[in-house]
Amino acid sequence: MVAALAAFWPDRPETDWAYTGGFAIACGALALALALAAFAGVRFVAFQRLHRLSPWLFALALFLASWEAVTAKLGLLPLPFFPPPQAIVEVAIDDWRRLAEGIFASARLLATGYFLGAAAGFVTGVAIGWSRRAGYWIHPVLRFIGPLPATAWLPLAFFIFPSSFSASIFLIALATGFPVTVLTWSGVASVKSAYYDIARTLGATQRFLVLKVAIPAAMPHVFVGLFMGLGNSFAVLVVAEMLGVKAGLGWYLQWAQGWAAYANMYAALLLMAFLCSGLITLLFRLRDRLLSWQKGLVRW
Amino acid sequence: MVAPIASDHAVRGSTLTLREVSHRFDLEGQPLPVLDRISLQVGRGEFVALLGPSGCGKSTLLRLVAGLDTPTAGALLTEGREIEAPDPSRVVVFQDPTLYPWRTVWSNVALGLEARGLLPTHRGRVEDALRLVGLTGFANAYPHQLSGGMAQRAALARALVNDPKLLILDEPLGQLDSLTRIAMQAELVSLWQRSNFTALLVTHDVEEALLLAGRVIVLSDRPARIKAEVLNSQPYPRHRGDPHFVELRREVFAHLGLDEAW
Ligand SMILES: Nc1ncnc2c1ncn2[C@@H]1O[C@H](COP(=O)(O)OP(=O)(O)O)[C@@H](O)[C@H]1O
Ligand SMILES: [Mg+2]
SUPFAM superfamilies annotated for this entry (chain B) (predicted)? Predict the structure, then answer.
């Protein structure tokens, strides 16, 4: 296995070396590092994790190599739309300031909207699940307005709210809040009545029943809602940035497309993928920590 | 041994009075009578067993005693006052252990103390209760890591930690293997002797009822009525092979209409 790695990986720079120097050197250095790591794996346990990843790394190298080949080398794909990988690296290096600003703006907007939406959704969900009166008043509103995509509010929101930033926060919160509300509610409503009986016979107050029985028992549902809300919030974030907020990765995408700067677009897309995937991973980590008592959790 | 929370040792068991208690469920619009005019007087510190076929309404009766439901007719009193709501002085060990899956064994056992705000001052009781049921090594385990019998023992510890005046046991040993079961029966008796609480045990096991209780109330099929009462004043520990015990068992089986088999 290790021998195979050493034999296969160094073949990457050979496809690349004739092109953009920096990219080839970077690839070469990476390949060398990986090859070294592969050898080191024989001796050091820490590097042996790489073995599991090696088929993927190999496939990635193959993909990069063929991408390089069909764009820069053979020119099989129309150029402005499909730039070679080194062009994207170039963008990342030249335009890093604007990209970093974009990431920061997007992250700030998303985080604010998501937390507000998740918190509001959670509280509303618990209220509907627990109190009949809250259910009576909130449920119809939820049924009527909830299924409406948050983006449908976009024109109205930008008109009502003082700034496009606050309007976007509202939209993201709305998109997050609906699934979190519904799933928290169903989680609280499906708590086994025996759980309450136990606590009641042991002298629990209403407060204890809500905080220490209903909410922890509903947490697996709440997390499903949080995941759905996160997915929704990404969609709304991009749309809001494209249409209203003049900042963030979504806006950058739009802007790059306007200038036919396709390499910039790919760079922004890539960053966005990292951002979204990173946040999902973070949420999974949080869930694994809070719900470690559950059997058979899906690993991300 | 779980030490009492209160110090008034001698008078800790409470009395229980059932006056013509009847209960009915609604099953798809059809009334389902489950309890039929049950009258019962349980003295302070007594150990009473309710024996009846499954489905006759034993668990229903215990829920009424616990204050989780109110009877359709009749009244339940403890210490002369009507039972209107659950109270931590009347603790139930349910048929199903129902531990909270998100809590460790330790914090499941600590539940009652935590709910009443007594945990900071009585932490030691949790360990005592765990030791009593033999789960010391599993304090940090989660319920899904326990066997059925261990879960049931944890549920027993969760009840005992509250130092109840009336301990209500709904077939609490039903899921245990026979060895653990015998050990737990002896443990229950010595626990009851030491702490003086009043015990109300529901079971469908004739021997268990006679081994543990001073009085066995035999219930009929649904709707449950009191068919007979068998006193057992034998000292503890009791032995299954003892001629008087065998005689009592025959008597109880006769009340259940099963004399032919014995
Ligand atoms: N909440 C309920 N609603 C309707 N019927 C019930 C309910 N709880 C119990 N019953 C019925 O009452 C009868 C007695 O139940 P239970 O008290 O659990 O019997 P057991 O003596 O086995 O403990 C059963 O026929 C059961 O179906
Ligand atoms: Mg029962």
Answer: P-loop containing nucleoside triphosphate hydrolases
